[in-house]
Write a structure and sequence with these properties.
The protein has 440 residues and is an alpha/beta fold. It has 15 helices and eight strands.
Amino acid sequence: MRTLLDRSLTGLARLALRGFFRRLEIVGQDHLPHDQPTLLVANHFNALLDAVLLMRAIHGLPRFVAKAALWRPPWARPFLWLAGMVPVERRQDGGDPSHNQQMFASCSEHLVNGTPVALFPEGGLAPTPALRPVRTGAARIALAARRAGAQGLAIVPVGLLYEDKVALRSRALVRIGEPIDLDEQLRRAGCEHADPSDQAAVRVVTDEIEGRLRTLAPAYRDEREAAALGLAADIVLQPRDQLPPGEVPLAQREELARQLADAPIDAKERLLDHLARYQLGLSLVGLRDAYLVAPYRVRRLAGLLVAAISKLALVAPFAAVGAIVNALPYWGVHWAGRFVHEPALRASARLLAGVALFPTTWLVVAWLAPWDTWWARAIVVAAAPALGLIAVRALEQIVEVRRTWRGWISLIERSDTLEQLRTERQHLVDLVGATAAPSR
């Protein structure tokens, strides 16, 4: 029963993420251990979505350690049980940490049995896209499991990054770091026989976890700095040989943006000031940076339009059905985030609304279908999500072709200002290189 629940929830998470994100990048999956106890530790910026991304990254459902306050509403307890979560008492929630023996025992049992355990060691949601100080809970869980027989335990750090924490169809990045060999870490510190009460061993393991996570998690002053430095990295890394313009991989963009974030404040301010002026120049001519450097040729543009129209003509009937079937739940998901005042919870509200509304809609459509056989209704339920994705991707392609066409028109109509914009762009590229250089 437990295995069936885990697989069902993992499949549901995978389906939900396919609709929620336009693209999900996972880097470092080869770092995940096999056939050994695994404790996953990750930064915590986006509530429930962080947990779902971890599930997708490891292709399974780990046992999440979550604050005991989640169990207070009686209606939430069955769902938490279904997800296999382990409650932990925290002082900031009014709990007594001395009552956490059951939590340590449960985590140790799971790890000894080969079930991964995951937690967010900052102890809560970070208000800014930067890792907060890591607490000692992860180290204590690891030491307790090792003492209980989880030999060869690996602590795997995971960095989570969102292009936009709230928007639908944005992008996300999961970076899995090299695992920490707990036995080796304790041996080097001279703490081979340490237990959870050994403060020196706890501090050694905690510091190692925090150090690894800081190399993987975002590190920005606020959301605006993260967005601005990401945009600067996009401009520098933008490929010039694709039409429509290609998208810079999020992992590559984040690597350069982090180098810029580590630069001195005055250097960053100069960069952001020039970036703002360049973006203002682009907006005045109705152009995006990617289209300023795109390889526009009449023949190439005509080929793009013909290919897009042909492809859309083939999928149009399926996209239309998918749009009709999924329109109401889509708008329900869209508006679900509008009613949540806490920004860190808006994406989670949308994800939960999607998990509730989309399957319900598919079942209702199958029930209303004119076919009486069970297999015909099953086909309707199975086809509905696929048709919905076809509709979304068709709409995204229409938007992409429209932007490409408008970019070409802007280049023609504003040709007198393009040389100045290209000069400013090159200056910005040089400035990014000079700003990032000291931190390399």
